Amino acid sequence: MDAEPDGPENSERAIRAMSEHTDVPLLRVEKGTLDPLELAAVTVVLLHRLNAARREPEPGSWPSAVSAPWRRPERIPAYRGPRSWQAQAA
Fold this sequence. Notes:
Elements: H1 8-20, H2 36-54, H3 84-89
């Protein structure tokens, strides 16, 4: 699946697609009121997150499996046997 480039053509197409369905609201405010600027900000954030979720990560951008460089104390058993000191001294 090829990702479409971001640009004015893509934005205009999205705006036209949203304006075609004016009878069905895209967003609904459950409590309170939004002024047009707040509604625009929420819409931009939601559309940006939707677009980011659709994109595939670039190769090499993030390793798939990396071991943590720190210790995880919760993975060490809480109780050690009475002779565990002998294993550490050896």
